[in-house]
Amino acid sequence: MGSLSHCNSPSLGWVVQKFGGTSVGKFPDKDIQIATDIVRASLSQNRVIVVCSARSTGKKAEGTTSRLLAVYGKLRGVGAAMCVDEEQQNELVEQARGLMLDICNDHVFAAEAYIQDPSIRGKLVQTIKDECQELVEYIVAAKRFNLEINSRAKDRVISFGEKLSCRFMAALLQDKGVESEYVDLCDSFHYDAGERLDDKFYRTASEAFTRKIAACESRVPVVTGFFGNVPGSLIDGDIGRGYTDLCAALCAVGVKAEELQVWKEVDGIFSADPSKVPTARLLSSITPSEAAELTFYGSEVIHHLTMDQVIRAEPPIPIRIKNVKNPRGNGTIVVPDRILSASHQLTRDSPKPQAEHKKPKRPTAVTIKDHISVINVHSNKRSISHGFFARVFSILDTYSISVDLISTSEVHVSMAIHSSSQQVEAFGKATKELAECGDVSVLNDMAILSLVGAEMKNMVGIAGRMFSTLGEHNVNLEMISQGMHDPRLG
């Protein structure tokens, strides 16, 4: 190990680097090393904040977060069995203990494999064991004292994934000669559980994170992507499993970073899925509205709340998506586009002669979202339509079903809905109630094909070319949707 000679220089601007769980798990010591080739190399140009997700060395289902969800399942079982069977409780506690032992062993193995300095390695191994033991003791206490098992308990369990990951990353950086400090945001601020996730909440969170980062002085902060306390729940509430991206964005806003870097295992955002379309090209830049559409309609780009925070910052902070396997690549940068106010009149450019175009206009990207069901509801009443639509959407709201695409006439509505496995029962009940509104038909195993591009509103004939191409390949269209300000045709 080299001496701790690399640190944040106060004269440089900030960059926030967010690493996903597989990056932390798979690239600590390969041809490309996160600690040296990315973080340490960046310190010559910027001050760096590192934000990490929970470690994973393979599929998401096998990652630390997924295993901690299984631990929470055992904890919830302990709570459910409180008044029933102590023997069953004990069995569930032992199962949870076994899962935690697997998680502990996995992180200890990584520490012993990648940390060269005996002192740093020894401290890390002991810290990992202590963190895992703390969670086991919490589960035992839940059984012994009949603790309430709620969404906050779930958040507490899940937070250990980011704690272990960031402990590992901080030690890895120190082992490579970088002055770093572990920063735990899991209890960084308190917010009234009854309050909503509004601008005040995000401002409070960002300010709390900034205070923690400032306390690190010249040391590189290694920040847990899991943060709290969030009204309701972090993972089960409005934010969900994209919370690490949002945490990185709030850190970037707080320190007024020059750039937010999201490191993945792909070179950036492509014009289509490269595994399905070999000719897909890497996009050098994309607007937030385009990125949001790609995320919603099937391409895993970046959490929508992340973009909201950095693009609305003053000044706006660009997001750059880069590849941990190709640190020198430029990646794809998400740059602010023009925000249309409510009073803004949208003006369309007049079609220009082809000779005046510097280059042919085309959509930015194409994306596909599978596992779609289309519900068609045709009203039996040829009367005022507003009551019909109100009833339809009231039923969907009752069962928490969101609509991806919609097409309407006065007495007919077609809705494309993502039929996830968790919604099968709710979907069936909603369909039965919709039958009270009129004739209902359902088409399963469909897909949404979307063209995405901020400039498509000015592309003459783009819809015709899309439909012609689909027709040439015998693809039948069930519904079409595009909004006035929408950078997407689906």
UniProtKB/TrEMBL annotation:
Reactions it catalyzes: L-aspartate + ATP = 4-phospho-L-aspartate + ADP
Coiled-coil blocks: none
Domain ACT: 451-490
Name of the protein in its database record: Aspartokinase
Region (Disordered): 344-363
PANTHER family membership: ASPARTATE KINASE (PTHR21499), ASPARTOKINASE (PTHR21499:SF59)
Annotated Pfam families: AA_kinase, ACT_9
GO CC entries: cytosol
InterPro entries named among the record's database cross-references: AceGlu_kinase-like_sf, ACT-like_dom_sf, ACT_Aspartokinase, ACT_dom, Asp/Glu/Uridylate_kinase, Asp_kin_monofn, Asp_kinase, Aspartate_kinase_CS
Family: Belongs to the aspartokinase family.
Organismal lineage: Eukaryota, Fungi, Dikarya, Ascomycota, Pezizomycotina
Pathway note: Mycotoxin biosynthesis
GO MF annotation list: aspartate kinase activity; ATP binding
Biological process according to GO: 'de novo' L-methionine biosynthetic process; homoserine biosynthetic process; lysine biosynthetic process via diaminopimelate; threonine biosynthetic process
Record key words, sorted: ATP-binding, Kinase, Nucleotide-binding, Phosphoprotein, Repeat, Transferase
Residue spans of biased composition, Basic and acidic residues class: 346-357
